[in-house]
Amino acid sequence: MIGLKESDTIESIIIENAWNFSQEKEKLMHSIHSYPAKFPAFIASKAFEYAEEEGVDVQCVADIFCGCGTVALEAKLHSKHFWGCDINPVAILIAKTKNSEYSIEKFNDYYQEIKKRFFSMDLSDVQYENANIRLQYWFSRERFLDVLRLKRSVMMSISKDDIYLNAFLCVLSSILKGASRWLTKSIKPQVDPDKSPKDVWYLFDRQCQKFLQAIAQIQQYYYQHKDVNMICKNFLEITKLPKVDMIVSSPPYVTSYEYADLHQLSSLWLDYAEDYRTLRQGSIGSLYNSEEVQLENIPLNPVGLSIVQDLKNKQGFNRKVRAVARYYADIERAISKCAKMLNTGGMALFVVGDTEYKGVKIRNAEHLICCLRENGFSNLKASKRKISNKLLTPYRDKEGRFSSDKRQREIYHEEFVISGRMDFQ
Ligand SMILES: C[S@@+](CC[C@H](N)C(=O)[O-])C[C@H]1O[C@@H](n2cnc3c(N)ncnc32)[C@H](O)[C@@H]1O
Question: Quick count: other Cβ atoms within 10 Å of Cβ 122?
Answer without folding.
Answer: 6
